[in-house]
Design goal:
It is globular, with a radius of gyration of 17 Å. α4 runs parallel beside α5 (about 70-85) and α6 (about 100-105) packs parallel to α7. It has one domain (about 5-265): Aldolase class I (TIM Barrel, Alpha-Beta Barrel), CATH 3.20.20. The strands form two sheets. An eight-stranded parallel β-barrel has the order 1-2-3-4-5-6-7-10, surrounded by five helices. By secondary structure, the chain is α/β, with parallel strands linked by helices. The protein has helices at about 5, 10-15, 15-30, 40-50, 70-85, 100-105, 125-140, 160-170, 185-195, 225-230, 240, 245-265, and strands spanning about 35, 60, 85-95, 115-120, 145-150, 175-180, 200-205, 210-215, 220, 235. The chain is built from twelve helices and ten strands. About 45% of the residues lie in helices and about 15% in strands. β2 (about 60), α5 (about 70-85) and β3 form a beta-alpha-beta unit. The structure holds 5-bromo-uridine-5'-monophosphate (5BU). The site of 5-bromo-uridine-5'-monophosphate has 18 residues, from β10 and α11. 5-bromo-uridine-5'-monophosphate binds near residues 36, 91, 180, 205 and 239.
């Protein structure tokens, strides 16, 4: 099946080049999994690519938690990820005014030169998206912003009226690839999908095959249920990178997410 047959209305409506690149890669790998690559050594990160690349569509990074980070090692890591057909997603959660966000895309980590996707809060207003897009433009590259419409963590302050405003403003912006939704609560995801419609993607952290509470306020929901409820990409961290066999775990999450997409689209 090609991407349009698999994704249906989402493929037709979500026309941003980065959205389509994601959807096509997902079809190639039969997976809707983004691995939260939360390991704090470069060796640990390189090993993850070797273990999971066949079953994962994107790698989500926190560049500032790597103990032995260096520009050279990071370049090599990104080249290896790209060669393995992985999108690179820096979960930076930008939140400042537009011009500072633009500058923060540069700096020591130079996120604009290697990230295909970044996260942002819309707390400072919609100019943040223009700032981030200008950052990619400064490097002669294109990228997509995922706005935090919901979070997975207990007690977060992203209330329904805030979520709605993020969605209204985000839907109107071409630089927005989609939204972060709460993967741990299918009912919340259903509501988010209704607000978002078909034109933008929803990516969801807070997903684990072991449903329940995680460390320090994290909450987990079932991967298949998240996709059925409207998620286009499940973001999985410890469920894969802390598994005894990360490759097998990635395969299991890929299958669970793919079954969700097939069920959602009646395939
Ligand atoms: P976990 O090990 O599957 O719990 O990792 C979850 C990852 O998703 C981790 O990198 C968080 O930074 C990220 N995350 C999240 O857990 N919840 C959120 O609402 C957002 C990001 Br936004």
């Amino acid at each position: 099946m090609n991407a349009e047959e698999v994704w249906g209305e989402r493929w037709v409506s979500a026309t941003a080049p980065m959205a389509r690149r994601y959807m096509e890669t997902a079809v190639r790998k039969s997976s809707l999994v983004c691995l939260a690559a939360d390991r704090n050594t470069m060796t640990g990160l390189f090993n993850l690519i070797d273990d999971v690349a066949d079953h994962v569509v994107a790698l989500k990074t926190h560049v500032d938690l790597v103990d032995d980070w260096s520009p050279e090692a990071w370049d090599e890591f990104c080249s290896k990820a790209t060669a393995a057909d992985l999108l690179i997603f820096e979960d930076r959660k930008f939140a400042d005014i537009g011009k500072i966000s633009r500058s923060q895309m540069a700096g020591q980590y130079n996120i604009r030169t290697w990230a295909d996707l970044v996260t942002a809060h819309l707390i400072s207003g919609p100019d943040i998206v223009d700032g981030l897009q200008a950052g990619w433009g400064d490097a002669g590259r294109q990228g997509g912003v995922l706005l935090l419409a919901q979070m997975s963590s207990r007690g977060n302050l992203l209330q329904p009226d805030y979520t709605e405003q993020v969605v209204v403003k985000g839907k109107a912006h071409d630089g927005v690839l989609g939204f972060i939704g709460n993967g741990s609560r299918p009912a919340e995801l259903n509501e988010l999908r209704t607000m978002v419609g078909e034109g933008k993607l929803i990516w969801t952290p807070g997903v684990n095959l072991a449903v329940g509470d995680g460390d320090m306020g994290q909450r987990y929901g079932d991967p298949t249920e998240a996709v059925v409820a409207g998620s286009d990409c499940i973001i999985v961290g410890s469920g894969i990178h802390q598994a005894e066999n990360p490759g097998l775990a990635a395969k299991a999450y890929a299958r669970a997410s793919w079954e969700g997409l097939m069920a959602r689209n009646g395939l």
